[in-house]
Amino acid sequence: MIDRELRITADLARIALSRQEHERFAQEVQSMLTYLDSMTAAEAALEDTAAGAADPNPANPTHYGPVQPLRRASGLRPDHPVVAARSADLVEAAEETEDRFIAVPNVL
Amino acid sequence: MDYPRDAGRRGQRYAPAPEDPGTFYDHTLRSRNEEIGAFLELDPARRPTATTANAGGEGAPLAGLPVAVKDNIAVEGFHLTCGSLLLRTYRSPYDATAVKRLASAGASIPGKTLLDEFGMGSATDTSPLGLCCNPWDRSRTAGGSSGGSAAAVAAGMVPLALGSDTGGSIRQPAGFCGVYGLKPTYGAVSRHGLVAYASSLETIGVLGATPELVSLLFDVIAGPDEWDQTTSPSPSLAPGSPSAPGALRPASPTTLARTSSTAWTVPAAQAGQAGQAGQAGQAGHTGQAGQAGHTGQAGQAGHTGQAGQTGRTPEPTLEDVARARDGAGLAGRRIGVLAGDLGLSAEVRAVYCQSVDRLRSLGAETVEITLGCLDYSAAVYYTIASAEASSNLARFDGIRYGVRPAEPADNPYELVRMARSDGLGPEVKLRILLGTFILRSGFHARYYARAQRLRRRISSELAEAFARCDALLAPTFPTPAFPLGDAGPGPLARKQADRFTALANLAGCPAVAFPAGLVTPEDGATELPVGLQLLGPPWSEARLLSIAAVHHHATEPAGPPEYPPLWE
């Protein structure tokens, strides 16, 4: 895994990595991803088997035009880490403050 | 001896000790724990006494029994650390449903057992709060992640323990420690109060010294729970079946314990349901229930329906588990035996072959089953489990849960980042990073979506296997318990070794690990137990435990010589 991808992933996961940790996890995550990629071959093999098994009496196709796959839209939003509002700005905007905290009425 | 000794092995009633058994805890339990490290927390005030034994009323099924609880299950007043620094100060304000039920049934909870941090690991060596070793050989692992629970039972400290099983976390340590471990059907036991790791995979389950004890505790904790919407109101595919957990208790979801008046009987209301659904008087057979039209449920219907159609042997009940000694062995049972090269060590392969022969000698018929999904089950499991972990563990942020960093942070996100970076261990961080990566928009289809499709294939393949056999015999791990530290298998090899146990979690079906034999590994001088597992279709716990009980009485497996059980 390239360094940039791990940095983005760690940001999304809200985990700060030291340089040592970064090196370690880059190796370990890459190793795991390589292993998980074995699913690709497994699925391809299953599809081949299924295609072979399901084809004793192939039905005539109902459409002879060029293949036009359905357009798919991703339902996922982009993975962009965002910079949070600085707590100093939030405290400054508060009506009443105490030290570096927002003061609120006692409720208990 | 100041501890009840006259129960357990043959499923008799437990007689609580009339005197205060303080010596038991102060000396034996604590000294053994110093050697084994099974418990993270012990509370002498909760030792079994005549008072606690009577808590469930007359005839309480677990009267006087101490039951250890894995430290990712909530017990009011105890810490709930999940083996993590991040939760080291957290105390549970409530009891998990399973804990409530066992307490109502008369059990006492002497302490919380060690686990891999958040249940992530297979050696109980990833927690910074402790290290658990195997009672058979203290230089070796007890397995994981429920290693503390398994070691506590194996070392004779408690006869029963609760664990959780996400990818084999009950069965693998049960196999390493030579005890019985039940991973129930998904939805059979409430997970209210279990700290979530991978919600579509994990269940609370039972570790015990005998199959009879395991079935006793399973019957107490199983059943519907209004606090966990994934629990089944009854085995939905076989309503009224006495083989089903919870069928031995009143149907009310708020009832916490089986009462003596309804013990071992099908409640009238459920018997009526069975009569409507199938043929009255034949409701005990899952095959018949499956034929009664309950086939549209959750994609698991095929399992029970198909298994039921084998129709060779009447379906056993949980009560039959205690009668296995007097039964007709395994006559009429068909056991699936895995074909092909399973990648087992010589020791485990030998035990597997011996067990097949033994099951045949006990009357079972064997049939060869080839499971192609073993090639990718571990990869599918780690994809889904890591993805779910990255989401579930987001709550441990130092604000809602977890120790807040001492240093002030510049903004809330920085605070969360500091808390998680300081509090989480390397294995947990690895799985969160992996899961977050897998779920990213650019990689989701390549990993997560593919894993979900393959998970479906695994369920189908197992359903086909269960149509040909009553139970499937499989290893729990390719090797016996491995040495602690760097001498054991590497991180990736350990994960790949979960391929046998992960099957049951991915398909939601039950599995029972049992001690199958003793071996002396090439790299050691001490005998070690080797465990195997029996997998069955959903809601076949009674069947699996009955087979395990027949095997148990035929072999009478012993515990580690150094730690004779404190109960008999």
Could you describe the 3D structure shown?
The complex is a heterodimer of chains A (108) and B (568). Chain A is 47% helix and 4% strand. Chain A has helices spanning 3-12, 19-36, 38-53, 87-93; strands at 97-98, 101-102. The model of chain A has no long low-confidence stretch (mean pLDDT 80). In chain B, helix 3 links the parallel strand 2 and strand 3. The longest helix of chain B is centred in the C-terminal third of the chain and has 24 residues, at 445-468. In chain B, the strands form 2 sheets. In chain B, strands 1-3-2-6-8-7-12-13-11-9-10 form an 11-stranded mixed β-sheet, sandwiched between helices. The termini of chain B are close together.
What's this model, at a glance?
The complex is a heterodimer of chains A (108) and B (568). Chain A is mainly alpha-helical.
Question: Care to count the β-strands of chain B?
Answer: 13
Number of helices of chain A: 4
Secondary-structure element string of chain A:
HHHHEE
* Shape descriptor of chain A: elongated
Taking Cα atoms only, what radius of gyration of chain B do you get, to the nearest Å? 22 Å
Features:
heterodimer, A: 108 residues, mainly alpha, Histone, subunit A, two-stranded antiparallel sheet, 4 helices, B: 568 residues, alpha/beta, disordered N terminus
How would you summarize the topology of this molecule?
The complex is a heterodimer of chains A (108) and B (568).
Chain A: H1 3-12, H2 19-36, H3 38-53, H4 87-93, E1 97-98, E2 101-102
Antiparallel strand pairs in A: 1-2
Chain B: H1 22-36, E1 39-42, H2 50-53, E2 67-70, H3 97-104, E3 111-113, E4 133-134, E5 137-141, H4 147-154, E6 160-165, H5 171-177, E7 180-183, E8 203-208, H6 211-221, H7 268-277, H8 286-291, H9 301-310, H10 318-322, E9 334-338, H11 346-361, E10 365-369, H12 377-392, H13 412-423, H14 426-439, H15 445-468, E11 471-475, H16 491-496, H17 502-507, E12 511-519, E13 528-535, H18 541-555
Parallel strand pairs in B: 2-3, 2-6, 9-10, 9-11
Antiparallel strand pairs in B: 1-3, 4-5, 6-8, 7-8, 7-12, 11-13, 12-13
Helix pairs in contact in B: 4-5, 6-18, 9-15, 12-14, 12-15
